[in-house]
Amino acid sequence: MNTNQKLYEGKAKILYATDDADIILSVFKDDATAFNAQKRGTIRGKGEVNCAISTHLFRLLEAEGVRTHWIDTPSPTTMRVRTVTIVPLEVVVRNIAAGSLCRQTGLPVGTPLSPPLVEFYYKNDDLGDPLLTSDRIRILNLAAPSQVEQLQTLALQINNILTKFFDQCGITLVDFKLEFGLDGKQSLLLADEISPDTCRLWDQAETDPERRVMDKDRFRHDLGDVEGAYQRVLARVLGAPLRSPSASEV
Ligand code: TMP
Ligand code: ASP
Questions:
Q1: Does 123 contact ligand 1 (Cβ within 6 A)?
Q2: pTM across the whole model
């Protein structure tokens, strides 16, 4: 059991203090929420899957020169991460139109977005994480203009790396959400997680708009087989051979 002091419990993770003020433990949970926690449930094994996928992607990004909060992963659901002050912005990168972009603009789902769209949302559950403009970010003093510019550049750099990586896994990275934090030297580090909870991932082997979904949209829209989809993303990310269907599934 974790006897460290609990610092914060979010929807998908719990943060604990360690003896070192510069390091915290991030423990991934099976709990799932959607629509600003109006829908709640459990995705069995999600904590382990998301911790393993995030670990792999943070390691990949670090190897490509992107600074992240990840230090190591001492247990299947636990990451040791650098202590940061989270910037209250959710940075969304979109390569293909889906989700709220389509709901709010009428753009058809699946429309390619080139160059990719980078959007900033206010990380504020009480307000329902509204879409921001650069003027709103300035008025609310959520980040300095130079930091917003840096976040935009980092988000596009991360998108380049992740798009190529997922493509090698036979997965299209449709869109994803990033969070960043500031370390003691006021440097921006990629934080939080990158997982099927925070990305839209479409299986390139499927054309059917429901069957191709390998991410939390299966939970959001009750598409079924949520656990299976998360496990398949993990298997592809780790490069493990895909499980062949058992006789009962054929
Ligand atoms: P959206 O289309 O609902 O705005 O979502 C864009 C991306 O951000 C999608 O990959 C899912 C991710 N996301 C989160 O990680 N957390 C959230 O709270 C929301 C709304 C979206
Ligand atoms: N994570 C968000 C929530 O529960 C929303 C989502 O991912 O759809 O509020």
A1: no
A2: 0.94
Q: Which atom of ligand 2 is nearest to the CA of 11?
A: 4
Q: How far apart are CA 44 and CA 194, in angstroms?
A: 18
Separate counts of helices (H) and strands (E) for the chain:
6, 13
Establish whether residue 100 lines the binding site of ligand 1, counting it when its CB lies within 6 angstroms of any ligand atom: yes
Task: Tell me the two tokens of residue 136.
Answer: 């709103």
Ligand (nearest to CA of 125): 2
Nearest to 27 by CA among 53, 43, 8: 8
Q: Is the four-CA dihedral 93, 96, 99, 100 of positive or negative sign?
A: positive
Ligand 1: centre distance to CA 215 (Å): 11
The single-letter DSSP state of residue 163 is H
For the CA of 102, the nearest atom of ligand 1: 2
pLDDT tens for the chain, 250 residues long, are 678 999 999 999 999 999 999 999 999 999 999 999 999 999 999 999 999 999 999 999 999 999 999 999 999 999 999 999 999 999 999 999 999 999 999 999 999 999 999 999 999 999 999 999 999 999 999 999 999 999 999 999 999 999 999 999 999 999 999 999 999 999 999 999 999 999 999 999 999 999 999 999 999 999 999 999 999 999 999 995 444 444 444 3
